């Protein structure tokens, strides 16, 4: 179990002043958007205030068939050291193959062979990172055929073999439940919650019968229900609100943070 | 949905802050007012590094300039001011103010410019004719005196603002206080100073955001200090203060000092990206 983080929000340059004014206990930054030598004034200000800043990567492509890019890992590690972050994170996915970037967090086939590849890449990244690595479940619009493990078991075995932390995105879990029929209760029962680093909460919208985890819409009550189910099992070290586009007024973001706190209470 | 500017009779009773901003500092100033008005309404936010981005909010009737700001964002504050100032919406605002008798048209100002040049030609011709004994000295004196008098008479007509426009700017002075932020920006501009403080500071804007505003050196045509409407030159530009040409030194903006000659500051009014 990691140290208590509290309730946080994703720091984004467009809402930096808003984030500074909100009642948050920690923030997360997208690692690929920052340069170690030129950290944004707002991020430095938050660090001066003692607010933990956690780097969150989207480009390691840990589930990819290719070896992990050492440069990307080094950047993530450098950022962790510059920010004094207790750990860093990325996703259980791949984002490139054959020299092409997908532009999306692509789900992995839940096979033992894919798990072996993921474990190897995670171990390689961990070897070069100065802090622990947390890995996040993604929202998928499709499932690869011939899966051998449930998503919960896939993550559980990943943790078992790499000793990584988990970053559980309850909005992604809700999206998979809506779109793919993932059993939320079973997922939460199967993952090792004692290895939970923190939780992501985000908004989305249904379009033509498919739920999209947009991070640009309000958080649905159903997503908070998933958070409640997790809270019924464990008091998570931290819960972070992600908002990446179509930013609402400060009061609306504050309201969503308050709603998260209410679930955790 | 954007509302339109409706030409009415001359006068400032119905003038909106961005219209007053245009009178006081040109299209760049009007753009600044539109942005600050949207900030006040919670429709946009400005980040620490000066990116203006829309806030998801309930739609309400915006002015054409405000609607353009919302469409052009996200963009850095300085770029946004320049872009909005160079927009067709800003030009429509100018035309509306011309239609209301507050701003003189380019044609009017060009006519005055040519009239002044003709007077100079007339004086030179009279002197040359006198030197060739083709004209008596008395006629030369009469020509020079007439030219000076006529030049003074048409001088006022060469200013970008009409008397009504200048009066509106003078009235703006009374309401340009920290409690009326759009009026404050309209009169002083974001880079202007009020009570010893920069306006952007007074509004709580981050220095890095204000740094994106482009302050351009003013061309001081008459050796005097330049100002627009008597309240600084926050957004003057080559097309500011109702002047579309800006090539003529000494054009005046409300208070009579020069601001139309390509100088100015605070967002580079007439640029446009």
Automatic annotation (TrEMBL), chain A:
Alphabetical list of InterPro entries matching this protein: MbnB/TglH/ChrH (IPR007801), Xyl_isomerase-like_sf (IPR036237)
Gene3D superfamilies per record: Divalent-metal-dependent TIM barrel enzymes
Pfam family, one: MbnB_TglH_ChrH
Signal peptide as annotated in the record: none
PANTHER family: UPF0276 PROTEIN HI_1600 (PTHR42194:SF1)
UniProt protein name: Uncharacterized protein
Species this protein is from: Saccharothrix tamanrassetensis
């Amino acid at each position: 179990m990691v140290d208590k983080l509290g309730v946080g929000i994703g720091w984004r340059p467009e809402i930096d002043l808003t984030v500074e004014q909100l009642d948050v206990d920690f923030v997360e930054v997208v690692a690929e958007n920052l340069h170690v030598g030129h950290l944004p004034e707002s991020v430095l200000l938050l660090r001066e205030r003692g607010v933990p800043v956690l780097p969150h990567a989207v480009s390691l492509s840990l589930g990819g068939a290719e070896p992990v890019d050492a440069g990307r890992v080094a950047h993530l590690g450098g950022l962790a050291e510059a920010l004094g972050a207790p750990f860093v994170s990325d996703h259980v996915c791949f984002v490139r193959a054959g020299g092409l970037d997908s532009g999306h967090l692509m789900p992995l086939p839940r096979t033992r062979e894919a798990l072996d590849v993921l474990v190897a890449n995670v171990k390689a990244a961990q070897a070069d990172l100065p802090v622990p690595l947390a890995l996040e479940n993604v929202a998928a619009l499709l499932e690869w055929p011939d899966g051998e493990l449930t998503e919960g078991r896939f993550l559980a075995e990943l943790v078992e073999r790499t000793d990584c932390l988990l970053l559980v995105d309850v909005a992604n879990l809700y999206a998979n439940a809506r779109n793919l029929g993932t059993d939320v209760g079973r997922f939460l029962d199967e993952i090792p919650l004692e290895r939970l680093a923190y939780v992501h909460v985000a908004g989305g919208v249904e379009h033509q019968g498919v739920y999209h985890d947009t991070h640009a819409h309000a958080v649905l009550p159903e997503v908070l229900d998933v958070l409640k189910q997790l809270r019924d099992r464990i008091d998570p070290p931290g819960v972070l609100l992600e908002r990446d586009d179509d930013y609402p007024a400060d009061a609306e973001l504050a309201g969503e943070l308050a709603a998260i706190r209410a679930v955790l209470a | 949905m954007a509302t339109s500017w409706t030409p009415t009779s001359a006068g400032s009773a119905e003038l909106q802050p961005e219209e007053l901003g245009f009178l006081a500092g040109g299209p760049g100033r009007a753009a600044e007012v539109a942005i600050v008005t949207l900030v006040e309404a919670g429709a946009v936010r400005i980040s620490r590094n000066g990116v203006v981005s829309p806030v998801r909010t309930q739609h309400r009737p915006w002015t054409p300039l405000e609607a353009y700001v919302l469409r052009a964002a996200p963009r850095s504050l300085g770029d946004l001011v320049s872009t909005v100032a160079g927009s067709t919406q800003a030009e429509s605002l100018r035309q509306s103010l011309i239609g209301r008798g507050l701003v003189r048209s380019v044609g009017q100002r060009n006519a005055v410019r040519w009239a002044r040049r003709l007077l100079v030609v007339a004086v030179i011709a009279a002197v040359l004719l006198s030197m060739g004994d083709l004209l008596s000295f008395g006629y030369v004196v009469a020509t020079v005196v007439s030219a000076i008098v006529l030049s003074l008479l048409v001088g006022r007509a060469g200013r970008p603002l009409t008397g009504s426009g200048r009066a509106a700017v003078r009235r703006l002075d009374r309401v340009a206080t920290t409690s009326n932020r759009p009026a404050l920006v309209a009169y002083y501009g974001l880079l202007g100073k009020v009570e010893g403080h920069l306006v952007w500071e007074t509004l709580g804007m981050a220095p890095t955001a204000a740094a994106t505003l482009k302050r351009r050196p003013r061309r001081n045509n008459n050796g005097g200090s330049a100002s627009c409407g008597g309240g600084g030159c926050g957004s003057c530009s080559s097309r500011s203060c109702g002047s579309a040409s800006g090539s003529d030194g000494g054009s005046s903006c409300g208070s009579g000092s020069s601001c139309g000659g390509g100088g100015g500051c605070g967002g580079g009014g007439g640029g446009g990206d």
